[in-house]
């Protein structure tokens, strides 16, 4: 170990120091997760402010369901964009790809009467091909992702116009539209709440508490600091309370929409991949320090290629969900979706230099934007002022990230 490295390390506490206090552990936890916790607090404050300002409309069951359905496709894009940014790249083409896939779905289902299930599979494959095309130029030819995806943005938007000939196509089959607008069917005896949604909420609570306990046990096994047991129980109780409040709100209307299930599956899948698999660690390593990652055996070209293939598939899925919600394929679909996804990723904790970010952070960032959009519309703030406010929020989030890095480095 070099002398420079030794100087940056803090001395290990001696046995005489005793175990760290509760306050010390809390401060350590806040510092290590400052951005994510900060956005959670910001999201909670935004919800409280607009709940009061809108005369309790924001958290009504109908509006909460609308929030989920209106922002589902942006959250799907935000997950993929977070992974792209963690890898040290950017994708400007996702909004145009959303429109292109929606147009392709319209041509397949409406013009050529393909079964909607087959059309969905073909559209996802088409998204993978689009992502592979861009990933090839970025990973193997070495053209910067900004240029490649800017070219893709123009090409996919033009392809949308060609497929639709400047006209909208509608209607989509009912089964396809339910993918975005439908709800889980009711089952079991009559109660005041939607039974399947309540069961799903209880399962999510159990899984979240188990994951927290498992993480605590792993830290204990490696002799790392953990919060006192009492605070751990408080944290678990807060998670359960939040999940059950959300579940009961949805259950008092029509239950969980299918779009929420799609998003939940993606969240669980990509959280596991990024946190617990070799591929996920390679993505973080590549974005954090590409030369060092290559020396460590990371196949940087393959990882970059697969990151953009994944982004293409998620953009295709978002395009299908958006088209299903809209009920038609339109040339103007997906406008500024790439900016919303990028903003969600940065607000949720992504770093412009790569190597930092979480899937949960992408969801939180997307929800911050979604609640802002919905809340400002409810209280009658014009779209022009909404854009200004969202721009300031994005600037504040990235500025906080830069400030936090400088503070840690000092």
UniProtKB/TrEMBL annotation:
Chain intervals for the UniProt region annotation (Disordered): 1-20
GO MF annotations in UniProt = transmembrane transporter activity
**Which InterPro entries does the UniProt record give?**
ABC_transp_permease
Q: Which residues cross the membrane?
A: 37-53, 73-102, 114-131, 137-156, 226-250, 256-274, 303-324, 344-372
Which Gene Ontology cellular component terms are annotated? plasma membrane
Instruction: Give the keywords, sorted.
Output: Cell inner membrane, Cell membrane, Membrane, Sugar transport, Transmembrane, Transmembrane helix, Transport
Explain the purpose of this protein.
Part of the binding-protein-dependent transport system for D-xylose. Probably responsible for the translocation of the substrate across the membrane.
Record's bilayer topology term: Multi-pass membrane protein
**Whose protein is this, by species?**
Streptomyces antioxidans
Which Pfam families would you find in this protein's record?
BPD_transp_2 (PF02653)
CDD domains recorded: TM_PBP1_transp_AraH_like
Q: Where in the cell is it found?
A: Cell membrane
Query: What NCBIfam families does this protein's entry cite?
Result: GguB
Q: How is this protein named in the record?
A: Xylose transport system permease protein XylH
């Amino acid at each position: 170990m070099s002398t420079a490295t030794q100087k940056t390390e803090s001395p290990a506490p001696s046995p005489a120091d005793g175990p760290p206090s509760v306050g010390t552990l809390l401060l350590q936890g806040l510092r290590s997760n400052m951005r994510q916790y900060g956005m959670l607090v910001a999201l909670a404050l935004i919800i409280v402010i607009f709940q009061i300002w809108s005369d309790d409309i924001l958290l009504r069951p109908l509006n909460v369901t609308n929030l989920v359905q209106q922002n589902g496709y942006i959250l799907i894009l935000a997950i993929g964009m977070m992974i792209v940014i963690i890898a040290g790249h950017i994708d400007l083409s996702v909004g145009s790809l959303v429109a292109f896939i929606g147009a392709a779905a319209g041509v397949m289902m409406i013009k050529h009467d393909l079964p909607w299930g087959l059309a969905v599979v073909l559209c996802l494959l088409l998204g993978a091909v689009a992502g592979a095309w861009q990933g090839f130029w970025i990973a193997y030819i070495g053209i910067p992702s900004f240029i490649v995806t800017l070219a893709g943005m123009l090409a996919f938007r033009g392809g949308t116009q060609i497929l639709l000939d400047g006209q909208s196509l509608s209607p989509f089959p009912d089964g396809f539209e339910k993918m975005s607008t439908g709800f889980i069917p009711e089952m079991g005896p009559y109660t005041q709440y939607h039974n399947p949604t309540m069961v799903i909420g209880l399962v999510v609570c159990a899984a979240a508490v188990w994951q927290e306990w498992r993480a605590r046990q792993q830290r204990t096994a490696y002799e790392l600091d953990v919060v006192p047991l009492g605070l751990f129980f408080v944290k678990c109780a807060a998670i359960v309370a939040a999940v059950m409040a959300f579940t009961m709100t949805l259950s008092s209307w029509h239950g969980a929409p299918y779009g929420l299930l799609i998003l939940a599956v993606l969240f669980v899948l990509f959280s596991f991949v990024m946190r617990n698999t070799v591929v996920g660690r390679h993505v973080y390593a590549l974005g954090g320090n590409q030369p060092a990652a290559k020396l460590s055996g990371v196949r940087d070209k393959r990882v970059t290629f697969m990151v953009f293939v994944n982004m293409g598939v998620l953009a295709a899925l978002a395009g299908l969900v958006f088209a299903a919600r809209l009920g038609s394929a339109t040339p103007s679909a997906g406008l500024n979706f790439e900016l919303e996804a990028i903003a969600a990723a940065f607000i949720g904790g992504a770093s412009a230099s790569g190597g930092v970010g979480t899937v949960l952070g992408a969801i939180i960032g997307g929800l911050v934007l979604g609640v802002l959009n919905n809340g400002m519309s409810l209280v009658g703030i014009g779209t022009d002022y909404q854009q200004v406010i969202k721009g300031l929020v994005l600037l504040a989030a990235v500025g906080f990230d830069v400030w936090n890095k400088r503070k840690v480095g000092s």
